[in-house]
Every structure is written in structure tokens, then in C-alpha cells.
Model the fold of this input.
Amino acid sequence: MSVEATLDPSAAAPQGPGGPLLKLSNVESYYGPILAIRGISLELARGQIVTVLGANGAGKTTILKTISGVLDPEKGAVELEGRPIQRMAPDRVVRLGISHVPEGREVFPFLSVLDNLRMGAFPRTDRDAVQRDLEKVFGYFPVLKERAHQPAGQLSGGQQQMLAIGRALLARPKVLLLDEPSLGLSPLLVKEIFKIIRRLNDEEGVSMLLVEQNAHIALETAHYGYVLEVGRIVMDGTCRDLMKSDDIQEFYLGMKQDDDRGTRRWKKKKTWR
Ligand SMILES: Nc1ncnc2c1ncn2[C@@H]1O[C@H](COP(=O)(O)OP(=O)(O)O)[C@@H](O)[C@H]1O
Ligand SMILES: [Mg+2]
Done:
């Protein structure tokens, strides 16, 4: 491998030294009798951003809930640094190093911004380091410092997204799970938030699993990607390769082609079902 290829994160494969940080093998989860995700296998290497792309209802949130222990899988394994964590209680999963930024942010609206952030540090006893991390979060999101003493419910959608990310970072996670951070935000704010997401990865080395409907921004931000359709992974590759794929361009990036419109290549090849 050339030096250039080694230095280029978008060329990196999902495996890192010492095995994947997070690994899902054949995971299957239900809501009562309803099968939501099936045969989900994916890997996140240390230091990477991996994205899962999928339309509304594809199962993106279900994957994250299964990892964070909110939902117990019926089958399969979830491993953090080789250790099985499936069916563990959510607070234990946080203590082991996985923080979840949920869909729709879910900040505590009547608590101050500062108290919301402090909630994120609940598993920690190293108070001085928490204070330093708080300052670091304020460095990335200065508006949170300006509004530290306001109720979180008074923040705009974008600011609440920043707060939800900041709160998750205060647990000092090994893995950050991000559920559609672009949802409901203006294109300009989406750009701003994803720039910070990328910086947190570059500068702090935070590994992330990012699920998104917004394929444009997710493929620009992540290193490696999986495509989820109706609860199954139908395609994966480096984001650079996925961006070049005809199917991704046509169905996820909205770039029209004159010929062959309406048929997914992976369905033609019968690589699934
Ligand atoms: N609480 C629930 N009860 C029953 N079905 C659910 C529930 N949450 C999600 N589902 C179903 O599971 C599937 C996957 O949902 P979800 O993971 O939320 O998709 P996404 O996050 O990709 O939009 C969908 O068919 C959805 O209707
Ligand atoms: Mg969702």
C-alpha cells in the first residue's frame, strides 16, 4: 500500500489494527411480532466514521437501538472490542463506551443547557477531566456556552442537535452513535454540524456510526458506508466508491440517468433475497 493510500481516510478499509472496535454479526431485531432488521453485519474500525444509509423506515434507528441496549436482538451478536454486549442494559453499554445521540435529539427541555451536558457525564467520577471536556465541548459549540444557563427547550433545532452531541461526548465515548443529525435542519446548519462532526473525528479521534437519510452529506463525511433497505444491508463500500456507484447516484443522490431507470443493479444481480 502506498503512503498516500495509508494517509487517505476515504481509502481505508473497515478493519483496523487489533480488529474492529464495534462489530455486528447477523443481528435480527423485532418490535413485538414485527421484524425490523435482519442479518445485519457491519464493522466500525477505531478512528473511523461509518455510515448506514437508508430511507425512512429502513431500520436505521433500530440498528442503533440494538447497539445501545434499548432494544434486545432476537439473534446475532454485537461486540465492542471483541466483547459481546447484546442484551446488556443501556446504562452499562454507556459505561463500556458507547454513547447514543438519539433521533430527534431528546434533550431535557426544562433543564439548563449546562445541566443537560452534565447529565452526559453521569458514568464518570473524574470531575476535573469532566470540566476540561465541558470546556472542549464549548470550544466546538460556542453557542452552548453562550446559552449555558438557558433551558434547553429554548434552543433552536440545530442548537439542540449540538447539545445532544455535546452531551454524548461528555461520557468520553469510544463510539458515538449518531441518529440522523441532519433531520429537520436547514442545509446551511446541516453543513455546519457535519463540519464539526468531521472535526471531532479528525481532531479528537472519536469513532462514529452515523445513520442518515441524507446520503449526500453522509457520504461526504464518512469513510465507509452500508446501504440499508427494508431491514437488510444490500450494499457496502468506501464512501468514495459508493458515491461513484450508479445505483447510489440514481436512488440516493437523485442524479438522473436516461437509460435503465427504475431497476436497481443489486436486485438484478440477486445479491439479496
Ligand atoms: N416502536 C415500534 N413498534 C413497531 N414497529 C416499529 C417501531 N419502531 C419502528 N418500527 C418499524 O420498524 C421498521 C424500522 O424502523 P426504524 O428503525 O425506525 O427505521 P428508520 O430509522 O430507518 O426510519 C419500520 O418498518 C418501522 O415501522
Ligand atoms: Mg430513524
